[in-house]
Amino acid sequence: MAESVVLDPVDLHLLRLLQNDAQATYRDLAARVGVAPSTCLDRVARLRRAGVILGHQLRLDPAKLGRGLEALLSVQVRPHRRELVGPFVERIRALPESRTVFHLTGPDDSLVHVAVADMADLQRLVLDEFTSRREVARVETRLIFQQWDCGPLLPPATPIAESG
Questions:
Q1: Is the dihedral of CA 142, 147, 150, 153 positive or negative?
Q2: 51's torsion region: left (phi>0), alpha (psi -120 to 50) or beta?
Q3: Where are the beta strands (DSSP E) in the chain?
Q4: Model confidence over 5-62: pLDDT tens digits?
Q5: What is the pTM of this model?
Q6: From residue 86, how far is each of 19, 101, 129, 130, 131 by CA, in Å?
Q7: pLDDT in tens, 125-159
Q8: Contacts of 129 (CB under 8 A, 6+ apart)
Q9: CB–CB of 98/92 below 8 Å?
């Protein structure tokens, strides 16, 4: 498990701002946080080196790219061994339809979020890329009607000790 990083209020403020606008300039960020632009640049660089900031992503609308049907595929890999799970995950990650792959505990070994053109495309994907693999014992499909993004991922607030 990765070690957590100690973040002060300036770091947290920078992260909140960057999560809402990853294209903000260092000058704008510095002004909003109340530090010099060079300090802002140094802090963001430190947060990148520490692995707190993982990168920038451009989000695309799957429907506008012809992939308006999204689903979650629960997959059982049998036998559930590292030498089968690793190659399976790498193959699934390489599929253009795959959005996210989770390795799980419980009755299912993986949960795969996919985006496809339509029901026929989903059927093709499940049959040709999942159930045709020898190590795949079962695939269960759930269609996604709608999804909502949640708020920014920031460390929990530390309680302020009452003086007295």
A1: positive
A2: left
A3: 69-77, 98-103, 110-116, 136-144
A4: 889 999 999 998 998 888 999 999 999 999 999 999 999 999 999 999 998 888 889 9
A5: 0.79
A6: 31, 12, 16, 14, 17
A7: 999 999 999 999 999 999 999 999 887 787 666 54
A8: 91, 92, 95
A9: yes
